[in-house]
Amino acid sequence: MSGFFKEFREFISRGNVMDMAIGVIIGGAFTGIVTSLTSDVLQPFIHIVTGGGTEVSGLDVTVGDTTIGFSNFISAIINFLIIALIVFCMVKGMNKLEKTVQESANKLLNKQKEEEAATTPVCPHCLEEVKAGATRCPHCGGEIPGGAHV
């Protein structure tokens, strides 16, 4: 039983689990904002434009004592589409940022390699890199007159 709790503690303390928990909390808060936008701004605007006034009851169907809330369903669809659009934009932006950072890192790495290649002496026989001042090449064993230099 002790091993089970140890594994559970390790699982919970992983970074990706904590990131996921933070994402769920922020997502819940964000959903509240989008729900308010839909129910308090968009839905009344849609009903004013369509002639339904500010009440959404025109979209609800009452059968006996039961009311089928099409307006709530439409609000949920609008909420989903807004959240999906924002998540899509965030992922697209993060991918673009990641690509830009990767390209910048590659440029910097290539520049460093070029500078390093320009300052690293090479064997005149096999053209392999050798340490500065070496009198023999460790690769081909050829003698480097006067020692290796750039």
UniProtKB/TrEMBL annotation:
A Pfam family the protein falls into: MscL
UniProtKB keywords: Cell membrane, Ion channel, Ion transport, Membrane, Transmembrane, Transmembrane helix, Transport
Domain of life: Bacteria
Major place of residence: membrane
Entry's transmembrane regions: 20-38, 68-91
Intracellular or extracellular location(s): Cell membrane
Gene3D superfamilies referenced in this protein's UniProt entry, alphabetically: Large-conductance mechanosensitive channel, MscL, domain 1
Keyword Transport set for record: yes
Annotated InterPro entries: Mechanosensitive_channel_CS, MS_channel, MSC/AndL, MscL_channel
Bilayer topology: Multi-pass membrane protein
Task performed by this protein: Channel that opens in response to stretch forces in the membrane lipid bilayer. May participate in the regulation of osmotic pressure changes within the cell.
Subunit-level organization: Homopentamer.
Family membership: Belongs to the MscL family.
NCBIfam families associated with the record: mscL
Protein name: Large-conductance mechanosensitive channel
Origin species: Olsenella absiana
